[in-house]
Amino acid sequence: MISTFIIVFRETLEAALIVAIVLAASAGIAGRTRWVATGIVAGLAGAGLLALFAGSLADMFEGNGTEIFNAVVLLLAVVMLGWHQIWMSTHGAELASESKSVGQDVREGLRPLSALALICAVAVLREGSETVLFLYGIAIDGELDATSMLQGGALGVVAAALMGALFYGGLLRIPLKHVFKVTGAILLLIAAGLAAQAAAFLVQAGVLPPLGYDIWNTSAILPQTNPVGFLLHILVGYVARPEGIQIVAYVATLAIILAASGLVRRMHREASVRPA
Hints:
- The protein contains eight helices and no strands.
- It is mainly α and 276 residues long.
- 79% of the residues lie in helices and 0% in strands.
């Protein structure tokens, strides 16, 4: 439940902030609420279609095909999350500025009202699609039931919508950069756990070598069935009896995303101080 709350909260919050910025920048324009709502509904519909598509594809595979399909979905979620972390680390402010610019252009008559719907639809579709993939990856693990995932997801949506409303009203006192840093770190660990899980599926399908079984065995100290072990498994990918390939996948995912994020931030800083 906690993992689904964090994922849904983080992704919904980003979309909510974009919507809040667009609404604030277009305040006073007749019909802007209708267009923004249309964009939100369109984005949700697109994400819903992706969810249905993923479920239908999963039902088409049998035998080893199921493991391979599950691994591909998990790796796709890892790639999207990695790209998201790298891109948002340097372009988050630019995205907010662009959203504000669209609202101002509509206000000044430089763009049609449909632009409000478009930017909101893209924001909701992007974050909604990532949420679908992440939650599907958690569902594959089988550790959480549908009720827990729905409860966590619903709480995440409500919390993110509340923060978006507070941001729109100018009442938010918690710096959003701190919120994104904390949730970003947790999502990074979740991504590494999903990569390790994908590696385990590929071992089952005979695609990857295990590189050893039971590299360590902490079942007696902290079993995954224990509430703490279960929580760590969901949040940071803890496995009581991991295969060697799972450890390699976990560490490699962390190293690649962190190194790429640092490289992109350095390049962005250099580009910002370079004379035109």
